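Q: What changes when V47 is included in the input?
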Amino acid sequence: MPTISDAQRLPTGPLLSAGELQTPPIDAAALSMADIRDPALRPIAEKICTRRRLSAEDGMALFETRDIHSLGALANSVRTARHGRKAFYNINRHINYSNICALSCKFCEFHRKRGESGAYEYSAETIFEFADQAAVAGATELHIVGGLHPWLPFDWYTGLLSHLRRRHPQMHLKCFTAIEIDHFSRIARLSVREVLMALKEAGLGSMPGGGAEVFDDRVHDEVFKGKLRSDGWLDIHRTAHEMGIRTNATILYGHIETRRERIDHLIKLRELQDAAPGFQCIIPLSFVPDGSELGHLPGPTGLEDIKMLALSRLMLDNFPHVKAFWIMQTMKLSQVSLNFGVDDIDGTVVWYDITKREGGLGNRHQEQTVADMRRLIAEAGCIPVERDTLYRPVERYPGGWRVLESAAQKGQVHGFQT
Ligand code: V47
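A: The predicted holo structure follows.
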């Protein structure tokens, strides 16, 4: 182990801004000022080590640096303080029940209008078959989202969940983005709270983070006009958190938004997490142009992906986890990102309709095996941990699985009181 002189050690200190979900203490021995080559990053490194919140300007400096290694070391010090060398994955199955959508977002290759070539909707029976296959494969989670379907009634969705819950009581149902919840509230003429209550009673376990895109009116009006605006998305997640429903958050980056707009998005998420904690992870989604109306754009580079993931770890000091969704980032880059602040790579996925590398004709069978995920994680120097949707470790035994929860952990999931 190299020794670090006192002058090189980064300072550690008490929390300057109080908050339950602040980053745990950074191990000063793991990070030395001598490692931070870009002088512009040194004041930021000091802030991180003394657990002070980063400003939007700090975020911009992190984006602008060419010293990617120092950025990675900083993000990794926070990741390690929270999770040690653990890297999480899950056995899940994504089900995109229909691509028929009232919206026409320009970044989205998935949406179709009724009768348009490629439009589909799965019957409830087909979805039950997918769920059965997932259960046989050992999945702990179903991730169910779709377009804003113009004529399915709200009780189709509650019926779907209650049937799935009866059929597979152990499976966690992570379903419906805030955009769908808003849609349900309109079609059912119910408040968001009433919609969430009905879904929860039917079996909803948590909400995924999709539909956030970029919280900015300029970007909204240019790329996803007609969609719920940022305040609506944030309000729905706030309501879910207040009702004890955990949710995830996303940002879709690498199209027409500026870096500053991305940082403002992250800060809005951080503020909501302070006010109404309940976000489990941030999933920065790397824009895949293939087949979309923005197909002429190049999409983010590998360096931009790594920066975005590392920066998300550093800006979101009150988020427990940062997930690289390998479908968007690719598995190769997701593996590298495990040493740049990321602690989760999502799961086996199996079928994915929303983005396909070669556009509309691309392959929807997008699957990772558990063996491959564990191998990639271990090769990155991390310890693979199978988690459930709420980030509790999963133990496998012949013919089944259970969630490991110590008495001390009961009633608490990564810092959130249940
Ligand atoms: O809402 C759509 C995005 C999201 C493209 O919560 C695109 O655990 C890139 O939210 N390029 C759906 N992104 C995916 C999502 C998600 C995925 C994995 C895990 C979780 C979670 C959530 O994908 C959409 C939209 O923001 N998206 N088109 C595209 N061309």
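Observations recorded in class: The pocket of V47 is lined by residues 107-109, 177, 208-211, 213, 248, 250, 252, 283, 285, 287-288, 292, 325, 328, 346, 354-355 (CB under 6 Å).
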